[in-house]
Amino acid sequence: MVWQRPDGRQPYQLRPVGFHTGFTHFAPGSVLTKCGDTQVLCTVSFSEGVPKFLAGTGKGWLTSEYRMLPAATQQRQERELLKLSGRTQEIQRLIGRSLRAAIDFEVLGERTLTVDADVLQADAGTRTAAITGGFVALANAISQLMRRGVIKRSPLCGQIAAVSVGLLQEEPYLDLNYVEDVAATVDLNVVMNQHLGIIEIQGTGEEGSFSRTQLNQLLDFAEKGIQQLLIAQREAIADWEEVFVGVRS
Amino acid sequence: MVWQRPDGRQPYQLRPVGFHTGFTHFAPGSVLTKCGDTQVLCTVSFSEGVPKFLAGTGKGWLTSEYRMLPAATQQRQERELLKLSGRTQEIQRLIGRSLRAAIDFEVLGERTLTVDADVLQADAGTRTAAITGGFVALANAISQLMRRGVIKRSPLCGQIAAVSVGLLQEEPYLDLNYVEDVAATVDLNVVMNQHLGIIEIQGTGEEGSFSRTQLNQLLDFAEKGIQQLLIAQREAIADWEEVFVGVRS
Amino acid sequence: MVWQRPDGRQPYQLRPVGFHTGFTHFAPGSVLTKCGDTQVLCTVSFSEGVPKFLAGTGKGWLTSEYRMLPAATQQRQERELLKLSGRTQEIQRLIGRSLRAAIDFEVLGERTLTVDADVLQADAGTRTAAITGGFVALANAISQLMRRGVIKRSPLCGQIAAVSVGLLQEEPYLDLNYVEDVAATVDLNVVMNQHLGIIEIQGTGEEGSFSRTQLNQLLDFAEKGIQQLLIAQREAIADWEEVFVGVRS
Amino acid sequence: MVWQRPDGRQPYQLRPVGFHTGFTHFAPGSVLTKCGDTQVLCTVSFSEGVPKFLAGTGKGWLTSEYRMLPAATQQRQERELLKLSGRTQEIQRLIGRSLRAAIDFEVLGERTLTVDADVLQADAGTRTAAITGGFVALANAISQLMRRGVIKRSPLCGQIAAVSVGLLQEEPYLDLNYVEDVAATVDLNVVMNQHLGIIEIQGTGEEGSFSRTQLNQLLDFAEKGIQQLLIAQREAIADWEEVFVGVRS
Amino acid sequence: MVWQRPDGRQPYQLRPVGFHTGFTHFAPGSVLTKCGDTQVLCTVSFSEGVPKFLAGTGKGWLTSEYRMLPAATQQRQERELLKLSGRTQEIQRLIGRSLRAAIDFEVLGERTLTVDADVLQADAGTRTAAITGGFVALANAISQLMRRGVIKRSPLCGQIAAVSVGLLQEEPYLDLNYVEDVAATVDLNVVMNQHLGIIEIQGTGEEGSFSRTQLNQLLDFAEKGIQQLLIAQREAIADWEEVFVGVRS
Amino acid sequence: MVWQRPDGRQPYQLRPVGFHTGFTHFAPGSVLTKCGDTQVLCTVSFSEGVPKFLAGTGKGWLTSEYRMLPAATQQRQERELLKLSGRTQEIQRLIGRSLRAAIDFEVLGERTLTVDADVLQADAGTRTAAITGGFVALANAISQLMRRGVIKRSPLCGQIAAVSVGLLQEEPYLDLNYVEDVAATVDLNVVMNQHLGIIEIQGTGEEGSFSRTQLNQLLDFAEKGIQQLLIAQREAIADWEEVFVGVRS
After folding, report:
1. How far is CA D242 from the centre of its chain?
2. Which of A8, B186, C71, E105 could crosslink D27 through cysteines, CB 3.0-4.6 Å?
3. What mean pLDDT, rounded, does chain F reach?
4. Predicted confidence band at D205 (pLDDT cuts at 50, 70, 90)?
5. ipTM of the complex model
């Protein structure tokens, strides 16, 4: 039996992607990111100074927070108040690590970029949408900070995008939505850069294991998806040529 | 010296108001509310059951949560994690009390409506925007719940809107923005119903006191503003005639 | 039907008021305040220094904490441990704002006054008793600090008192006790200064709205009550003439 | 060199003790206890039911909470909010254990007595004052509960009092005040019953050790003090003969 | 330049592994696990009942907690008290997911197995040691529970082991110690079952990306290490043949 | 009826004691302490600097943390996460106070020693095992710090050991195990120094009181036990003669 995708997509096909840039305007970067029905508001804030462990090194930092609005899911979910769930912490750590791979922190100097990813609507793939959209917000923020003269040179040395892939009935599928995510036996999130170098790979087969052959099939699909996302990102960043440096200093 | 409004409004003039209904679609009510540059996403969720103190009474409940996204303000603000600030708690209690005045809880029966007001962008007046937009989301939610047959009769027995007024150089002004809010010596939030009956009044003159004459001038302006908001709300609620009952059972 | 007050008072009559000054003696101000059966221990402490946001401005600060002892109510109430309830936070913010209107912070200089209001017995009106009694403790504290030479000039530039009024069967009543507070459809707390200028007004009609005419009737009663409280306060402050300055510098 | 007591007392002499019974009247027992300048408000509340570990055993429970008001000490102390200090927890556990020795829980049945000890003024010896005064409040509470018919038989089977003793310049002193408490090298708290049986003994010599001979001298002084406290307690309990049963069932 | 391993190991060589079974004896499974200088005490406890989301399904559950003792690292680390770090939560979720793949929860029935992994000494690889040693403790616990008659059939349907691999100077190395872990540009944790099916893969290249070729080299090394660990585990489990079932029911 | 000890010991007989020194090796002192089936891992860490209240005094500090692993008891116990229980706080305060009596803080200078006592297995007497074993770890840590030249002179001026005694059927017994601890009516913990001077005594008779005669019998047994523990400690400390100074400077 072969899995029929609820929205009729091909196995290797992404959901429609959209980046609504400048969605709010107090933060230097603000992008309402849509991947199908998943909507994540990604904002990037800037502040002078770095956390203690970097003070005096001349290097900057990027950190991330991830949260879901209570009404983002089918059933309203309680806000996380006294403590963050393990899931939330894992995701915001992943977003931070992934987007740090885009920045040359020596060029940035002792400043901190904060990426807030707030999920307004959740139809699976929120963490990868947060990374992909967060990158657009990051580029826009750097662009604005340069125009305002706050930073002199662009520290944007890598392009980062992310996508999920999964096994359904032992076959690979790209960019799962919620129904598919629940049905999948294996779920793999992949973060890559502009050269399709792997930045992060997280795969789990709680409902079953997967072979190395299947892993490589999943990665083939992930590569395809990420190539398209990289193009969509560049189209959404007005001054891509100026803001993207492409190599670490 | 007379106060010059930064956006050139008349003293008795509201900022442009907008209600983007159906902004997300998992919650029965979802309205992105704009009052000038202030943007609040108001969603209304529904659940069977009530808090303990009402169990067995046959009456329903409405509760509210209010939060700001970190990048909603000029300077990024930390999320409230371990505990809510006094300000946040005051505001969400105010929103809850105000919107409860719109509902006949005997008609609702033992169900709970939860109004989430998440501020995406804050240019003052977020609590009054949350109440005014929250009412639209509430009406839309009730409308959808009736269409889906979840509730049989509409419990919407009151129309509620809110606005801020303040004294600047001893003169009253309607619907202050952030710059005005900071400059005002007296700040008054007023919540009224469709008959301009007062539901809630909160005035504070930390930087100076105000006379009863000034209080009445402020209330004149508040009435004007609320009359316009009541009209705008009704225009944003497609099936107003069906959903609004207007009297308690 | 007309409301019969349980203690036989006239509608415009206060409960007996008492200020037991010097109730404890480590804090410079300490007043056990009684309004009928409501008992609030108000103490005022003094410390050098101010919160960060005022450091270097030359201005002082006043802050307040409010708490109920567990056995203050008919049913023992749990202490608020991990977090303060919204009600507690609202009240302590109100007390702080109200009593700050009594102080010229430039005269005080970079020092902090802390008003602790601990309710030993609660028969309604605890927040207004805390403000009215807190003012007496504040004046006594300033007086003692001047005698000890800790501060040179009195920063006491305003006299502050507070009272509650409410609507019962659509008629106004002054200084509600617990039974009345529960029965009232509208509850209004009013804080005024020595000129009967309004410092704070908070009215809520969760069980029903109120007209502007009713609001003005309630304020008439509040004014009457506050005039008597202002007199009682001055009688309880031994050296009123020396400690009260009456205008901001 | 011999220690001169600041208040001129003999080494074996208690501070003046006072029990102001019925200080508040919502809780069945309420005693403002004074030991010199130490003032502790002890209230005893009553509720049906017991903690889980006792449910179904037919036995009741007694628990205690201890807290200091912020202005109870020379320097204002922060309230314990997020967590209780080790000191506070130790003291409230000690009060609970000590007063449980006064109650026959089979006679009480599945009910809970809660002793709240709130220190209004602290001049050392607050934990022993809380126990000694808490016992008076406990007896008064039981007496009232019997008069109201809530409990049929008195469960008061033991009389409990407590005192502190200490070594100053290697000599024993009874009932230390704050100055003495700071100067003492050894501090011993003793809780005894009506037969001078030891219920609890806690001695610490952080600044120096003490011999068994000294321990016995300290216990001689503690016995003397407790004998007087037992008499004072009985005088403060109006219906001592009726309420005190004296033996476990 | 080629990386010289500080302990002289070959690139594909594990550190010495040891399982001290029965280290404590109140829990049914207790194994002090050593991987080089890394020491993790893994205990497995058993309780009737399951979390709410499984109640009534007839299925059991396995959960895990991971913590480091403060003195486990070169510099003493604060205990995590108010909240768990993201790292801790990630790790304990990983351990739980991995070891759940070893259990047939329908055979277990509505019971919960809790795996506690407490790191006594940390020289990198603590999470993989916790999984590998946790599996041994799990098998021992099941064995004891069967001997005691608490469970009738063994639910142990999979064998699980884990290891870390990393890139140092672009070359793969197996089972990194602390010095190597810090120096690595890419770090990959791999969890596999007895068929070398992948249960979990987590790779991160914060300091640099990695190619798919490198990923496959790392997986080759991981497979080699896991094969040896699977053998060592079986040797440490006395009654392996009885306790291991090998297929889901 | 006379109590029969479950392990056949004489009333005045200790359980077998063992000190496994150097159990872990990152902390300067690390001792796995066994008293019968009770196992406590005691580690001592060292850091420059002292808490605020000692800064600038030239004096050092010693603090302690005590915790049980979840599987240390017959039934798995939840870890204490949001707050420490009163029991845990009491115990860690006791360990800290007791071991501070071993150190001359003027010789130590402004440094902090942290004693972590983690109970791996609990069969009663964990707090006294933590003190007795903590002392050995402390001596070993000082010895190592002197060899490494971190401290010049030994600050070890006292030898500290602790034991529990209790009344079972009105007779005294030394070093109770869990079964005895539960059955005892009176439980007494005693901490003494090398001269058998009392450092700390804590006795509680919740299930019954005890006479002064019984107290002295219990202390006789405690002295016997502590004398043996002092010998065992000295045997476990390799360079006892060098590290122990014996008098405060």
Report:
1. 22
2. C71
3. 95
4. confident
5. 0.89
